[in-house]
Amino acid sequence: LYGAGAVAPDPAGDTVAASCDAIRDFVDVAFCVSHLRSVPGAATAGRRGHLLMAADMAAAAGSAALDAAASAAARGDPAAQDALRACEFVYGAASVPALRFMRGYAAAGSWAAARSLLSLTPQGGIGCEAALKGAAAGTAAAGDMAAANREFSQLNAMVTALLNAVS
């Protein structure tokens, strides 16, 4: 019934497993469970609380990716510099602010306003990955950013799926 790596909801009231199971078609359940369980209070939170926690984690991952891009660009790798500046821009101008606003709207129960930001939240991961293809491919900076983009993209997928499950 549950795919590889999936966690069945615990009948004793494991809200983390239940929330992650509810979005299993969109996210890796093991990733979801391990990340949510790392947040204090997740075990007793409901799905809305898990959404807010996931939004906080995604915004933090986006901020970390932005910082990593800025740091790598400052090191002066000419092949990757323009791509890294693009990564800084899409994380800093789109994804991170959109996630923060979306979290605020979700916390207030303004579901339509929260959903209206879903087209902006993934732009950091998508845009950065696209920018790094080509001239920057194969550079150390591109490898570092690939890991940051992957983490951000998985967390953003959790946010999107939880928002759709809650609202």
UniProtKB/TrEMBL annotation:
Domain Pectinesterase inhibitor residues, every copy: 15-161
Protein name: Pectinesterase inhibitor domain-containing protein
Source organism of this protein record: Eragrostis curvula (weeping love grass)
Key words of the record: Disulfide bond, Signal
Family: Belongs to the PMEI family.
A single MF term (Gene Ontology): enzyme inhibitor activity
Top-rank lineage group of the source organism: Eukaryota
Pfam families xrefs: PMEI (PF04043)
InterPro entries noted in UniProt: Invertase/methylesterase_inhib, Pectinesterase_inhib_dom
